[in-house]
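User: For a reading group we're discussing how well predicted structures match intuition. Take Zinc ribbon domain-containing protein YjdM. Before you show the prediction, I'll give you the sequence so everyone sees exactly what went in.
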Amino acid sequence: MANLPNCPKCNSEYTYEDGNLLVCPECGHEWTLESETETIEENKTIKDANGNILNDGDTVTVIKDLKVKGSSLVVKIGTKVRNIRLVEGDHDIDCKIDGFGAMKLKSEFVKKA
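Assistant: Thanks. Here is the predicted 3D structure of Zinc ribbon domain-containing protein YjdM, as structure tokens, for the group to look at:
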């Protein structure tokens, strides 16, 4: 018997193969082994606007004027952001910007400094 991975949704150990799919009998989740490894790899790497891989603690530069939601302030192009922290979600950079405070940024609007 092959050593199959646990269900990514409910972590059940009772998964089985059905053709090219893996199936969890407890929650009914179906997935392929390839999609699971691709999803994990995609979540691990966050890239800036130029395609450079970002890491926790990096310094980045804003490449576009960004309006601050709920305020009339604007983060200007060229603003350096130090000591970033990568998080999951739509806004994947958590940081503090001098004069603005704690913010979340999208990686597509920054470049590695």
